[in-house]
Design a protein that fits this description.
By secondary structure, the protein is an alpha+beta fold. The chain is built from 3 helices and 8 strands. The protein is globular.
Length: about 160
């Protein structure tokens, strides 16, 4: 009996093991195209490309011009890019959903909206990410502006 009492702490310690790893961060991005987004010379709304970058740091993204990001993002962003980027095409008035697991080390989300009149556009957006948690965001497009906000669900 005495041996059992002495061995009990060792048995309990062996059962504990290492704690499970934290869950990965996820992204749920809803992109809402506007009826007047990315208008051409006649005022007709056109589809627009949206590029999404998981970032370990935001300095190079903030300094980049849209043309460099379009042609060679991985070179421009270097180690600030935490993982693969995504691109979606958003038609006027459409809603597009993007759900993905975020790479480890992603601290921010960089979004480049490639408007036709990029020089007059608000094309670059940046949002902090919460590690090991769901990140639920809404991107609204209208004219040559883009607005990124948390998706606050009612209920």
């Amino acid at each position: 009996m005495k041996r059992l009492i002495l061995a009990l702490p060792l048995l309990l310690a062996a059962c504990g093991g290492a704690p499970p790893p934290p869950p990965p961060a996820t992204l749920a991005l809803t992109i809402i195209g506007g009826a007047t987004q990315n208008a051409d010379a006649t005022g007709t709304a056109e589809p627009v490309a949206v590029r999404i970058y998981p970032l370990a740091a935001s300095g190079k993204f903030n300094a980049a011009d849209p043309y460099s990001l379009m042609s060679h993002a991985s070179t421009v962003l270097g180690t600030d890019l935490a993982g693969p980027s995504d691109q979606v095409i958003v038609p006027p008035g459409a809603t597009v959903h993007l759900d993905r697991r975020l790479p480890d080390g992603a601290q921010a989300l960089g979004i480049a909206v490639l408007f036709r009149a990029i020089d007059q556009a608000q094309w670059r957006l940046l949002a902090p990410l919460t590690p090991h948690k769901p990140n639920d965001l809404v991107l609204r497009l209208n004219g040559v502006t883009a607005k990124l906000v948390p998706n606050i669900k009612k209920g």
